[in-house]
Specification:
The structure is a single chain. Strands 1, 2, 3, 4, 5, 6, 7, 8 and 9 form a nine-stranded mixed beta sheet that branches. The protein contains 34 helices and nine strands. β1, α8 and β2 form a beta-alpha-beta unit. The longest helix has 20 residues.
């Protein structure tokens, strides 16, 4: 998307040659005024935005002795291009003569006719098999457009019929694997003062006709970059695309795919002292929904054309970036990132002034997003440290990506600063679509996690509160809030949050898992654990982890007989803790099925000892009493456990009051 010199005339497409003045100038030099006048007015009819043609009319009128008409034509040239010096110089000259040649008829726009002076809009589309989406596109511009041009590249459905029903003039162009060639074919037929370029899967959003009507009245503007939203993702914000521009001579598209007219428009801007601006007439794009992508095989087509285009133009970063994007979309992340870095190398070597700001922002945001998806956090940090990337400062979305990367790299202080920058900038306009989490819980949530790592519990609580104020039902934020509360011994609050989350979505396994872990970690929550694990197993009857939590809740609540069959199922995981739990339940119920070798007995005894200590911590007095009452039977199965029990009992009694630990019965 850089400003490039226009190619030689021999390689220009036919549309860019429309409105040329070479013939008219030759006729003027040959003193054939009437013929020169007709040739120049014909150029204006074909390309209505033509400051040079109006200035040439002024020269022809002056040569014919009509100073009044010469002034009007030169003034019109200056009004079209206020920053262009030649009309001003002409008007400062010695303009004399009162002749009124019969052949010198001013163009309608100069005849004080308001209807003729009102800007006319030509809407240009290229289509193929678009019967499903074309009608809504045409309907969105019908009241605004003076001309709708549809160039069909080989439709086999009802596209042409739909186009004509929508008020379009239909032209045909044989498809040649070149989108710019098809776009340029549409420009050949455009006669309006302005051109609005759309795709069939796009439409002007409601109430935008009045916005365009207002914007095409502005002087000194060559074109507008219009905001474009993706259907179904409007909350993410918009990107900007150069779609509305003057119908000027020399304007044409380049690029076999991801075609753009920016280069030729920018050349006219520099020549005539004009500017590009951000427009406000929003476009809604339907084309990249999963359904449409699957139906059209767009990714495969785009890859084929981009591979061909990058061979033709190996130094064009715009094409290389889009090739990287399509490779990422096709699942080839590493190959796609290689292309992005290649485009970065090319574009960063150019002067910043030559790079369109919206392209730069979109490119950098895309690259950072893909690096994040690939978990290339160090590369994200490296990216935003490069001069080209941080020129002019980062956007809110870019600060967010850098903050997340730094958090993942265990740099919480630096990460927190980037997240605060994100929050400070997130309401500022940007060129690239903004990830929805920027305006929701995301930044505050990330800041909370950074502050936890920084041991700032008060700040973390404030950040969690802000996250949930922005997005009350954010499950990621609430899930981490639960962990934070549990770490602060605020387990009742944590379990309350989890109860709400489980009620909202009982199919989220990690909510049940975390609730079980918290409830089974505190004596005061044993009754809660019994009910919670019952519900968890009801929703996930085959989950071995939940079976283990349920069995533990039953065991600690002295419902040993009910715990035993669950422990037997849970021990399929092979974990020593589950095996030891089975042994404990079998010894306490007398339902002995589990057998182990003498070599295994020492390891199982150690696990049983860990269970015994856990029962003490959880205040399971009745279960401990039951173990002591059956010590004789336990001694036969687990002699190693019994040998160390007295030492463990003495150690435990130093921590717990005597009532908690009744003395074991003699063996």
């Amino acid at each position: 998307m850089n400003t490039q010199d226009l190619p030689p005339a021999a390689t220009l497409p036919p549309c860019s040659l429309i409105g040329q003045l070479d013939e008219a100038r030759e006729l003027l030099r040959a003193k054939q005024g009437p013929e020169a006048w007709l040739a120049t007015t014909a150029a204006i009819t074909a390309r209505p935005y033509h400051p040079e043609a109006f200035l040439l009319l002024a020269e022809i009128a002056q040569a014919a002795g009509d100073a009044s008409s010469a002034r009007r034509c030169a003034k019109a040239a200056g009004d079209l291009a206020p920053g262009w010096a030649p009309p001003k110089q002409f008007l400062r000259g010695d303009l004399r003569g009162s002749a009124k040649p019969a052949w010198l008829k001013l163009p309608p726009v100069l005849c004080n006719n308001p209807a003729a002076a009102a800007p006319r809009l030509s809407v240009c589309l290229i289509v193929k098999d678009e019967e499903r989406m074309l009608a809504q596109c045409l309907c969105s511009v019908r009241a605004l457009a003076a001309q709708i041009i549809v160039v069909d590249t080989g439709s086999t459905d009802r596209t042409i019929e739909v186009a004509r029903q929508g008020g379009a003039e239909v032209h045909y162009f044989p498809w040649c694997d070149d989108f710019s060639a098809a776009r340029n074919a549409a420009l050949e037929h455009a006669t309006g003062d302005w051109i609005l370029s759309l795709d069939a899967d796009e439409e002007l959003m409601p109430e935008q006709a009045a916005v365009i009507a207002r914007e095409i009245q502005a002087p000194a503007v060559m074109g507008y970059r219009l905001p474009i939203y993706s259907s179904g993702h409007e909350q993410r914000g918009c990107g900007y695309v150069p779609r509305l521009f003057r119908n000027a001579p020399g304007v044409h598209y380049t690029g076999r795919i991801h075609e753009q007219a920016f280069s030729s428009l920018e050349a006219r801007c520099q020549q005539w002292g004009l500017r590009h601006e951000l427009g406000h007439a929003a476009i809604l794009h339907h084309g990249f929904t999963d359904e449409v992508l699957a139906g059209r095989n767009k990714i495969e087509r785009n890859l084929r054309l981009l591979e061909r285009s990058t061979k033709e133009f190996p130094d064009e970063p715009n094409l290389i970036m889009h090739l990287g994007l399509e490779l990422v979309r096709s699942g080839k992340m590493e190959a796609g990132l290689d292309r992005y870095w290649e485009a970065f190398r090319l574009i960063s070597a150019r002067p910043v002034a030559e790079v369109a700001p919206e392209w730069r922002e979109e490119f950098l945001t895309q690259l950072a997003t893909h690096l994040m998806a690939a978990r290339r956090y160090s590369d994200i940090v490296r990216l935003w440290q490069m001069p080209f990337a941080n020129h002019g400062g980062l956007t809110a979305a870019q600060h967010f990506s850098l903050g997340v990367a730094l958090k993942e790299l265990k740099e919480p202080v630096q990460a927190a600063e980037q997240i605060r920058q994100c929050l400070a900038k997130r309401d500022r306009p940007s060129f690239a679509p903004v990830p929805p989490e920027i305006h929701l819980a995301g930044p505050h949530h990330c800041l909370a996690l950074c502050l936890i790592d920084m041991k700032d519990t008060a700040g973390a609580q404030q950040a969690f509160d802000a996250a949930l104020a922005a997005e009350p039902f954010s499950r990621p934020a609430r899930f981490d809030l639960v962990r934070f509360l549990a770490a602060q011994d605020r387990t009742c609050e944590a379990l309350k949050v989890l109860r709400h989350m489980a009620a909202e979505n009982p199919a989220e396994a990690r909510v049940w898992e975390l609730g079980g872990q918290i409830a089974l970690s505190r004596p005061e929550h044993l009754a809660f654990a019994l009910n919670w694990t019952h519900e968890a197993v009801k929703h996930f009857p085959e989950n071995l982890g939940f079976l283990g939590q349920r069995a533990e809740a039953l065991l600690l609540n002295q419902e040993v007989a009910q715990a035993l069959p669950l422990w037997r199922r849970a021990q399929a995981s092979g974990a020593p803790r589950q095996r030891a739990a089975v042994v404990i339940c079998e010894l306490l119920t007398g339902d002995r099925q589990y057998h182990f070798t003498d070599a295994e007995e020492a390891a199982i005894s150690l696990e049983v000892l860990q269970w015994y200590r856990h029962c003490i911590r959880m205040g399971a007095r009745a279960l401990i009493q039951q173990i002591h009452e059956r010590m004789g039977i336990i001694h036969l199965a687990l002699p190693a456990f019994v040998r160390v029990l007295e030492a463990a009992h003495r150690q435990a009694r130093q921590v717990f009051v005597p009532e908690v630990l009744p003395k074991p019965a003699p063996i």
